[in-house]
Amino acid sequence: MNDHYYSSKPTSASDKNTFEKELRGHRLRFTSDAGVFSRDGIDYGSRVLIAMMEIKSDSAVLDVGCGYGPIGLTAAKLTPQGRVTLIDVNERAVELARSNASANGIRNVEFAVSDLFSSMNDRRFDVIVSNPPIRAGKAVVHRLLEEAYEHLNPGGSLWIVIQNKQGAPTARAKLEDIFGNDAVTEVGKDKGYRVYRASR
């Protein structure tokens, strides 16, 4: 069976790739590997979300499905007085994110292997960010949206990016069902990707 990036323990042989990228004015160095999402470079959807997400300088942030860390580590740069928790079901991805934080001198972060929110217990956050694991299926994505609501502080917001052809309209309808119609905003769109903010 082939590995998916949402496998908990990828079995594919390590094949690391290191590259640099400027994100929100910060030059960051990343190492990715086989068996994780978007090994060859930061995928376009993640870059769209990174460009549009709004995070205050003292926020408690959660990156769900962090991969090797581009969204969460950029968030950590945006909230120097805050703290970012990066979680992923994929153990290899979490280890890469941890080493990428260290390589970039980013210290206001913590990491956990977690099947969606399973290891977060009753923790709550000001901001949750995610490029959802679309290939894991609609049920998984919708569970992420539902559980995100429970892990937001009052006034907190969920930021997600989804491609039109991969279910953006359905995801927006689900967000409106969970958060309420007036609480969901399309922040922007780029090449078929849509960024939604849902506020609790």
Task: Spell out the blueprint of helices and strands.
Layout: E1 17-23, E2 26-32, H1 44-52, E3 60-64, H2 70-78, E4 83-88, H3 91-103, E5 109-113, E6 125-130, H4 138-150, E7 152-163, H5 168-179, E8 184-190, E9 193-199
Parallel strand pairs: 3-4, 3-6, 4-5, 6-7
Antiparallel strand pairs: 1-2, 7-9, 8-9
Helix pairs in contact: 1-2, 4-5
Q: How far is the N terminus from the C terminus?
A: 40 Å
> How many individual helices?
5
Report the radius of gyration as a whole number of Å: 15 Å
**Strand pairing plus helix content: what structural class?**
alpha/beta
Shape: globular
Strand order, sheet with most strands:
5-4-3-6-7-9-8
Note down, in words, how this protein is organized.
There is one protein chain. The chain has helices spanning 44-52, 70-78, 91-103, 138-150, 168-179; strands spanning 17-23, 26-32, 60-64, 83-88, 109-113, 125-130, 152-163, 184-190, 193-199. The chain is globular and about 45 Å long. Helix 1 packs parallel to helix 2 and helix 4 runs parallel beside helix 5 (168-179). Helix content is 28%, strand content 31%. The strands form two sheets. It has a seven-stranded mixed beta sheet with strand order 5-4-3-6-7-9-8, sandwiched between helices. It is built from five helices and nine strands. By secondary structure, the protein is of the alpha/beta class. A hairpin with a 2-residue loop joins strand 8 (184-190) and strand 9 (193-199). The mean pLDDT is 94.
